[in-house]
Each structure stands twice: as C-alpha cells, then as structure tokens.
UniProtKB/TrEMBL annotation:
This is L-ascorbate oxidase. SUPFAM superfamilies: Cupredoxins. GO terms for molecular function: copper ion binding; oxidoreductase activity. Belongs to the multicopper oxidase family.
C-alpha cells in the first residue's frame, strides 16, 4: 500500500475518533423531537417534546463518558440543542449554539458526539432556536463522579432532578412575534415544577417520594425564560453540596434563590412526620409573586401537606447575602483526585479586563438589548464555520466593542459581536448592570470564578473585595440591578464560545456575544478539526471543505 494512502487512511480514522475518546465508556441516545400538547399551568398549549416527554429525558452520565445523542428534528422548523455547562474541551463543534452549529433542518437528524471530560455536577440541555425554550425541549444532564474519586458526602438514597421555570400560556410562536414587534414579554403566567403544578386538593400524585430517616439528593435547575425563582422544601432544610460542577462548603438553607440558567445540588433528609409535604418554587423580584408547588410523599406516610407554605425571602439584600455564603470546597476532589483548592486562581496576574455593560434601546422603534453599545445579530453563517473556512471577514469583525464602555451609551448598532481572545490569557470580566432588572449570564466552554457581586459601579479599587481564595467555580452569574459582578478565568479552551444572557428575551434581542480562542500552533492538542457529518450552512454551504488546519 502506498505511503500516502496509509497516511490518509490513518488521518481519516483519527479524525473520526477525536470527538469520541476511545477507552472511556460510551452512552448513546436517540431522540425524536416533536410537537405535542402540554399544559403545565392547566391551559393546553403547543409544546416541544423529546421522545414524547416534557420536560425531556434525563441524561445520566459519569465523568469522562462519551455521550452520543442522535437528534431527529420532526418539527417543521429548524431546531438546535445546547448542553449548558458541558465544557466540550477542544471541541466547540458539539456546543449546539448558533455561533458554532447550523440548526438541524426540519425532517433531518444530527448526531452530537461529545465527552464530559473532567467534569462532575448538575446541568441542563435546552433549545436555542427561535423561542423553543418557552415550549419545552429542555431536560436535566447529570455527570456523576467516578467510583475511584471520593465524594464529600454519603451516597443518597436516591437522586432526583427538579427543573422549575416560569411559563407563558401564549405559546412560543406568539412570544416570538411579541419580541419581533419590538416589545418585551412582560410577566409570566405561572411557574411549573417538572412541567406540573400541584392543585393542592389531596389528589395530586407525588413528584418525589422519600423514606423516613434517609437522605436524598435533589438537582435543582431554573430552566425558565426570564424569572429568578426561590426554591424551598416545606418543613425541611437543604444542605448545598454542589453548584454547576463544583463541590461547595456544605451550608444549610431554608430556601435558595436560583436564577435563570443556574443549577444547584442539595441534600434533603426525611426527618419529619411521615406524610406529604410541598416543594415550593416562587418568583423573585417581581411585582406579583407567582407560586408553584409539587408534592413530596413519605413512603407509608399519612396526611396531606399543610396549606401553610414556607414564606419566601423579601429583599434584594437577602439574595446578595446568600451569594456571599457560597464557597468552594477546597479539600474535596471534583473530577480528578487532586483537591479543588489546589488551583490557586487568586495568585494569577490579570492580563486583560473586559467590562460588559447591558442596556436597553429602541432601534428603528423596536426594543433591542445591547452590550457596550452593540446588539448582537445572528448571522446565517455560524461564526465558527466562517473562521474554519477562512471567510470570517464576510461574516463578522473581531473586537467590535470596546473593553471599557463609555459612561453613557446613547447609540446602538446591530451586528455580530466577537472578542478575539489570546490563548491561555487570564481574563477579568466585569458585568455591569445599568438597568433595573436582574441579569443572569452564562459562558459556554468554561467555568469561571465568581469572585464578587456588589452594588454601584465597578472600579479597579473594588478588587480588594474579591474572594481570591474560595469563590465557587461555575458557569453562570447573576447581576443585580444597578450592580456589578466580577469573574476570573483562563481562556485555555480553544474554539468560539458564547457569552449570553440567560434571560431569554434579552438573548433573543441581542444581549450576547462570542469569544474566539485560536490555537497559536494549530495543534490537535488544542482543538479538534471539523468532524465528519457536521452541517454546513450560510456562505459556506456550497464551498468545498478546507483541508484540516489542525495537525
């Protein structure tokens, strides 16, 4: 066999193996995405189901598993899922956002192949196309620790997923029209817990069951559109043990504020009189509190839950103070045997500071949300494809927002926003909320250290207040009105990664951007090449695939 042919065959084999790592177990799923009627608030609306389920099925994985999900889009419109919090090391091709992937066309399928490399914790997946997230298509994604890695608490009797969120009875197509007409969504119609709301008439089926004397793990996620929630268990306290991939110092809480896009893991011990109890999710920072309940039933218990619900917290200050109680467990091992605290992030020199200021504006009479004076517009060509095919100049410009926005932003432009990041630089992001609504931001491809949240305006002197010892490493951060939040991270994961508002009407109307991190050596040690089967669209759809740039 000719040497060139041998090299070519080896390369094709290697390329197919890069996104699914040999030697680690593989779990495979086949999902059919369809329309269906859902009624979480008692009003039938058109929903989006995965294998007939709302919410969708759980993905139960273990650190370093290879995950294969073959998604069949049986809708009559494009559809795309993202795996929020999964870092996709060296593999932005599986991130499932419109800056990296073409949406799955109607009647077609796409197979995601990714590894949950060196991660543990509680996460979600959800759709990013149109306003599909308002109709379903979301579910839980858990990454369990490997057996050889000690977990800093005893094995629970069971492991439950609790997905709560606000809900709008208008339906997702009507919500999309509202936004495109230049208006905001207004208040939600209600809140659901795992797609349901207990009626409280004594006939509710339990969402979860517990046996007296045993301890249970609840993975709590806010998969809503725009509303922060407070979650609490009637008659029981919660012990926080994990937050978005990090073991935490194990404090007890009577209730937890969970902002949009966030996930917490708590332990609840069944130490009360055996009967039924409510788990409660209620809106935060809204003029009118909306409450949802679900039933937790003790095995062999007798008695309906008390109609007296545990009270919610009442102020912004309460939520500020709760954030300050969240601490990284420095001695616990996460995905690797070494303790989490062995990474001394507080001793690394900052190489670039980027301040992102969110504002609301009218552009041509229609509402838009912006970061540093630019409102993001989704191009028809994914940004990553434009880079890979060397046609980025036809799709977007790099660094088209300033690192330090002006004090007053009076004019807004509309275009894609892409930050050009230097590989392995240690970056400080300041999220400055100039508005009166709470914000929630997420970064794909990474976790970061949430070192501070404070009121007022940020200045370099504020760094003396940073938590440089045990801030939690996570992937979302809330920003309270007229306040700021600071995060620190090393940009060591090559690819192009979405920084977005998890408040979905803001995301839809421009409050997002991307960070491009290019391998300086074009090395497969830093990033994988475009996988076989990846969809092409936009200006690159008819172009021949370029030779693989990474070797």
């Amino acid at each position: 066999m000719a040497p060139l042919m041998i090299i070519t065959m080896f390369f094709l084999w290697a390329r197919s193996m890069l996104t699914v790592q040999g030697g680690d177990p593989t779990i495979t799923f086949e999902w059919k995405v369809t329309y269906g009627t859902i009624s979480p608030l008692g009003v039938p609306v058109k929903g989006i189901l995965i294998n007939g389920q709302f919410p969708g099925p759980n993905i139960n994985s273990t650190t370093n598993n290879n995950v294969i999900v073959n998604v069949f889009n049986n809708l009559d419109e494009p559809f795309l899922l993202t795996w929020s919090g999964v870092q996709h090391r060296k593999n932005p091709w599986q991130d499932g956002v419109l800056g990296t992937n073409c949406p799955i066309p109607p009647g077609k399928n796409y197979t995601y192949k990714f590894q949950v490399k060196d991660q543990i914790g509680s996460y979600m997946y959800y759709p990013v196309t149109a306003m599909h997230k308002a109709a379903g298509g979301f579910g839980g994604l858990r990454i369990n620790s490997r057996l050889l890695i000690p977990v800093p608490y005893a094995d629970p009797a069971d492991d439950y997923t609790l997905i709560a969120g606000d809900f709008f009875n208008k339906g997702y197509t009507s919500l999309k029209k509202v936004l495109e007409s230049g208006r905001n969504l207004g208040r939600c119609d209600g809140v659901h817990i795992n797609g349901k709301v207990a009626k409280g008439d004594g006939n509710d089926e339990p969402l979860f069951t517990m046996e007296a004397g045993k301890t249970y793990k609840y993975r709590i996620c806010n998969a809503g559109i725009k509303t922060s929630l407070n979650v609490r268990f009637q008659g029981h306290t919660m012990k926080l043990v994990e937050m978005e991939g990090s073991h935490t110092v194990q404090n007890d809480y009577e209730s937890l504020d969970v902002h949009v896009g966030q996930c917490f893991s708590v332990l609840v011990t069944a130490n009360q009189e055996p009967k039924d109890y409510f788990v409660v999710a209620s809106t935060r920072f809204t003029k009118r509190e909306v409450i949802a309940t679900g039933v937790i039933r003790y095995n062999n218990g007798k008695g309906a839950p008390s109609p007296k619900l545990p009270p919610p917290p009442v102020s912004w200050a309460w939520s500020f103070n709760q954030f300050r109680t969240f601490r990284w467990n420095l001695t616990a091992s996460a995905a690797r045997p070494n303790p989490q605290g062995s990474y001394k992030y507080g001793s690394i020199n900052i190489t670039r500071t980027i301040k992102l200021a969110n504002t609301a504006h009218k552009v041509d009479g229609k509402l838009r949300y912006a970061l540093n004076g630019v409102s993001y517009v989704e191009p028809t060509t994914p940004l990553k494809l434009a880079e890979y095919y060397n046609v980025a100049d036809k799709v977007f410009k790099y660094d088209n927002i300033p690192d330090d926005p002006p004090a007053e932003i009076t004019k807004v432009t509309m275009e894609p926003i892409v930050l050009n990041m230097t590989h392995r630089n240690f970056i400080e992001f300041i999220f400055e909320n100039r508005e009166t609504a709470v914000q929630s931001y997420h970064l794909d491809g990474y976790s970061f250290f949430a070192v501070a949240i404070e009121t007022g305006k940020w200045s370099p002197e504020k760094r003396k207040n940073y938590n440089l010892l045990d801030a939690v490493s996570r992937h979302t951060i809330q920003v309270f009105p007229k306040s700021w939040a600071a995060i620190l991270l090393t940009f060591d994961n090559c690819g192009i990664w979405n920084i977005r508002s998890e408040v979905w009407d803001r995301h839809y109307l421009g409050q997002q951007l991307y960070a491009s991190v290019v391998s300086p050596n074009k090395s497969l040690n830093d990033e994988y090449n475009m996988p076989d089967g990846a969809l092409a669209c936009g200006v690159v759809e008819s172009m021949p695939r370029p030779p693989p740039p990474y070797t």
